[in-house]
Amino acid sequence: MAVVKEGKAKIQAFQGKITKDLPVFYNPEMERQRNLTICVLTAFQKQAAKKLDICDPLAGSGVRGIRIKKEVRGIGRVVLNDVTSDAVKLIKKNIKLNKVKAEVYKKDARILLFENRVGFDFIDIDPFGSPVKYLESSAFALRHNSLFAATATDTGALAGSFPKTCFRRYGIRVCRTDFYKELGLRALITSIQQSFAQYNCSFTPLLSFTNHYFRVFGFVQKNKGCVDRNLKQIGYVSYCAKCLFREIDISKVCPECKSKLEFIGPLWLGQMQDNGFVENVGKESEDRNFKFRSFEEEGVPLYYDLAKVCGKYKLKSEKIEKVVEKLKKSGFKASRTNLYPTGIKTDADIKNLVDILKT
Ligand SMILES: [Zn+2]
Hints:
By secondary structure, this protein is an alpha/beta fold. It folds into 3 domains: about 1-230, Rossmann fold, CATH 3.40.50; about 235-265, no CATH class; about 300-359, Phenylalanyl-tRNA Synthetase, Chain B, domain 1 (2-Layer Sandwich). The protein is about 35% helix and about 25% strand. The chain is built from 13 helices and 16 strands. Strands 6-5-4-7-8-10-9 form a 7-stranded mixed sheet, sandwiched between helices. Strand 9 and strand 10 (about 215-220) form a beta hairpin. It is globular and about 65 Å long. The termini are far apart. The mean pLDDT is about 95. Zinc ion binds near residues 240, 243 and 256.
């Protein structure tokens, strides 16, 4: 087993492809994701101005929890859990190696969270596959005014490639779209909100992130009013795969090209990020020399993929910044998006966008 250095932690773990023989896996590609988590947690701790008790119920090698304890100020209890004996042995070794104080358990993550009586200020659900089965127990174990993070690697289901799987797993109708990165994240957010709601627990997105996975951070309040306020922003979308028309409504026929519309939802249609919070995370990442690029986003849901629009309408491609400027000059809201390199967020409809691209 190799010892790897990451951030301020030294981690003993297997490296390479995951197999049955190597159940506890260190994935160096995830370093960037953990760097971001460190910055998010630092920004959140400063805002909360209290000691944070944290829990990583699917801890693997324990690297995330150890790094958080070493690199973020104001961390109280650290609870690391994994269901496999190999992982638990490794977590214990790594805690020793890094001289940090943490509690280690070997339980099913759901049982650990449901048995907890005092609650946590941060829970991170980072499984292989879908986080859906851990959401209820997380809602139960989260405190009022806490932070929750979840990762989903079943991107094909959430982003519209496997609609049946998505409906079965999340109860959400999806289809193939040009805004699939945003669709997947919104479906994940919706699923968290709906699972949390039964515990009078609200989830408001602070930062949404995508790579080969979807990851969201959100602010958690245990308050019925907050739950209802968020649920009001869950709705349905109609989408035309032929001409890229979309609207927040349930319609049957595309008003532009008369094709049959697909309907998507239920889907969170509120903000994907808190721009002020994302700016603070950006500052933290600068201070630590972590690469993190982010745009201040318009809250308009469902970006257009400029490349796809230009391809479909046989238009010459243009620099994305120029298109954003043109849209703004014509009186529309417009911004780039953190979710997709050629994505544009705008309140212009497809017809207006194409007209502007032609000028
Ligand atoms: Zn159409």
